[in-house]
Amino acid sequence: MLPRRRGRRPRPTPARPGRLAGQDDCADNARLFKTAAVLPTMKTPIFRALLAALALLAALPTRADEGLWTFDAPPLTRLDAKHAFQTSPVWLERLQLAAVDFRGASAAFVSPRGLVLTNHHVGSSCIQKLSSAERDLMKHGFLADGAEAELRCPDTELKVLHSISDISANILAAGAAAKTDEDANRRRKEAIAESEKRCEAQTRLRCSVVTLYNGAMYHLYRYHAWTDVRLVFAPEMEVAFFGGDPDNFVFPRFDLDIALFRIYEQGRPVSPRSYLKLARRGVKEDELVFAAGHPHSTDRLFTVAELDTQREVDYPLHLASAKRQQRLLHGFGHQSPEATRRAAHVLFGTENWLKAMLGEFKTLRDPVFQQAKRSEEAKFRELATAKGNSDDPWAVLAAASAKHRAKAKEFWAVAYGYRTLLQAAGDIVEIAHESALPEGERLSAYRSAELPKLKRRLEADYPIYKDLEITRQADYWQEARDLLGDAHPFVKTVLAGKTPREAASERISTSRIDRAEERRRLLAGGLAAIEASQDPLIALARAIYPLRRTLAKYQEVEIETPSKKASQALGRLRFDVFGRELPPDATSSLRLSYGVVKGYESEGTLVPWKTNFGGLFARHDAFDGKPPFALPANWLGARGKLKPDTPFNFASTIDIIGGNSGSPVVNREGEWVGVIFDGNLEGLGNRFGYTETAARSLAVDSRAILEALEVVYGAKALAAEIRGE
């Protein structure tokens, strides 16, 4: 499954949203370079800069259909030249208004009655929270028997992008008036927050400023948002994640990784402005297809120094952490079937994160990739010199990376723990303190535009298991102790002379933060309620907060602020030369990507473009029906009724990254033919660069979805709704 982000720990390298990604294809490179060659006698500085730019473009690796494109600047020329496809504003608007942001991942409306299709693993947080020991929806699946049986998710907000405005002039002007880099950063933050507040007051929409091209552009995105989201259908985990971790990021694949939800407004199913119609004809090999999704982030324009830091410091640190968490959760689950159920969702996320990082780390360690990045950077330096730039943003980023290296263990370990009770307590404490500050002085996670989503998660009522919480928190603190040593102030604060297990058990067992009503009371009471609270986790969060804030401010002032200025200089340089002919890096905002349905070569053999139901049962049989290759009983019972040649999963060259999970795949007519759920192992390096040689996005075929609903689950009414009948 495509990896989800791991909470709000500091990013492995200085956070610089909106770096540029993608280059023109080989034919365009050759054409442009040929144009430059016919004017050998021109010697002006402008022409020398143009020659350098064209040489850079020609020298960059061919990336064919690479690109995570914003909907206001789609690659019209490329699509026409390579695929003879002419899109229209109407086609784009229909797809934009049907695409759904599902808690940071992707989904789409597929009926006029608010029905939303996404992945099982995207919706699993809701499914897990609706489950219990008596009603395990992850294990047994769920199908609502009518609207009244649909189950409301406790903390889910879905959004659809309404419109985009360019507010670059306002944000850039705010920073230009500053006398120091730190003041410029503060002024930009204030201008962004003010733009978001004003937008929400005027439109009553959810508004968010998106940074593009390393800060060369700032766009205001306006969203329709809904919080009444109800589960309609989810298959069993055994078939949604058939093959388990061994088959994760692998193709051929056989997963029914789907879930269906319905959005309600004022007690009735919402009528979306647009929804995707089911394609009457299924997808075929070499067909042009598109995806609309919300890719989290890419680092395709990291400098060599930043990539070196990732390879030598961050990835080894994070991989070690993921492996210890994996061992811990397996050990916890072995205690009993109920312990297995409680740990399953966290374990799934941890193993998915681990496997994704291993693939990314392999790319970082690849000598060919390293040499390509060094060559690309050298060409870009030539371009900067040709344009007369005297600054050296690469040196600034190298210095910032050196400071990050020195603090990397602290950035990682001085934390509450990913999605723990202590993190909930810490969020409550930090919301109260940060909300009292001016927007420009707050930590970025606590901008006014971010608070409603954070508070909604904290106020939601869902099962929390203290035995699992104690086990996980104790291990986080043991990891901090191993990394920082007993003398570090954070370790002293959290352990207070006890072992990690003793400290975690003592605080968590008597805390009331696991109760939604207590979290709501503290949020409503603000600083006064928090200062008066004697809850052991709140008391600990109060003590940790100054340590975390000091570290966060160091990161912001010493690393992020100079990094942003340097990366903005690089972004402006690229933008001045190429404009919007190249797409910006992923920023969790809605993007359009495209490619063709296609197999590939792997380890000396050919991998077909699709799998089918027959292959699913053959794989079950080959492993004698043993987990994780065991199909549920209802699937085995339907074996003789399902068509063995029905396409199940398919591969394409669509450019994706984490966050694209749940993206609808549509054909030229804008009809949906599948839903993306994963990428293959060869595509895990997409974070740093794209190649279509073997990197593939993986999708569940619409034909398999409809046949499974009708034949296996007897959900004929639901299938008819999707068909538009």
Model description:
The chain is of the alpha+beta class. It has a domain at 304-575. 49% of the residues lie in helices and 14% in strands. It has 25 helices and 20 strands. The strands form 3 sheets. Strands 1, 2, 3, 4, 5, 6, 7, 8, 9, 10 and 11 form an 11-stranded antiparallel beta sheet that branches. Strands 13-12-18-19-20-17-16 form a 7-stranded antiparallel beta sheet. Strands 14-15 form a two-stranded antiparallel ribbon. Strand 1 (99-102) and strand 2 (105-109) form a beta hairpin. Helix 15 (421-435) crosses helix 20 and helix 15 crosses helix 21 (536-578). Mean pLDDT is 91; it is low at 5-63.
Rg, nearest Å: 25 Å
Q: Output the structural class.
A: alpha+beta
Binned strand content:
5-15%
Describe the sheet with the most strands.
11 strands, antiparallel
Please give the share of residues in helix.
Answer: 40-55%
Number of helical runs?
25
Distance between the termini: 32 Å
Mean pLDDT: 91
What shape does the CA trace take? globular
Low-confidence stretches: 5-63
Q: Can you count the beta strands?
A: 20
Strand-helix topology:
Layout: H1 26-37, H2 45-59, H3 76-83, H4 89-98, E1 99-102, E2 105-109, E3 115-118, H5 120-129, H6 137-140, E4 142-143, E5 151-152, E6 158-166, H7 168-176, H8 181-203, E7 206-212, E8 217-226, E9 228-234, H9 237-240, H10 244-247, E10 259-265, E11 268-269, E12 288-293, H11 304-333, H12 337-365, H13 367-386, H14 393-413, H15 421-435, H16 451-459, H17 466-484, H18 489-495, H19 500-509, H20 516-532, H21 536-578, E13 591-596, E14 600-602, E15 605-607, E16 610-612, H22 613-622, H23 633-637, E17 647-652, E18 664-666, E19 672-679, E20 697-701, H24 702-712, H25 716-723
Antiparallel strand pairs: 1-2, 1-6, 2-3, 3-10, 4-9, 5-9, 6-8, 7-8, 9-10, 10-11, 12-13, 12-18, 14-15, 16-17, 17-20, 18-19, 19-20
Helix pairs in contact: 1-2, 2-13, 7-8, 11-12, 11-14, 11-17, 14-17, 14-21, 15-16, 15-20, 15-21, 17-18, 17-19, 18-21, 24-25
